[in-house]
Amino acid sequence: xxxxxxxxxxxxxxxxxxxTIPKTQAQVSITVGAEPSCPYGYYDYSxxxxxxxxxxxxxxxNGGVFIGAGQWYHGHSNxxxxxxxxxxxKQGYKGPMPKNGEKxxxxxxxxxxxxxxxxxxxxxxxxxxxxxxx
Length: 134
Known about the structure:
Elements: H1 2-20, E1 61-62, E2 65-66, E3 81-83, E4 121-123
Antiparallel strand pairs: 1-2, 3-4
């Protein structure tokens, strides 16, 4: 009987102890902010810097307007589009980069026609390299 009392008191003390432990709550805050205003689109990874002309293929534009990438992607869920990763700083590109808010240069006789674009990777709208025709 004495053993049962000790066991019962130990159980009650354990319950009281766990009830007094303060609960912690994780606090996660994600701020998306405004979509970058880039003349030729922006890279699909943070910090979402503006991409130069020639990085994205024509399927990334609708009526001349970039459909978005990363957090601001506005296309359909199974979208796959060509990019030329030679224009990516992660791949060693060090050429000219447009700034946020700049306007596209007027077309010139040297500009690549969209039909001449040759991408070397296929991406989805969220920065993932995907399987598909290159």
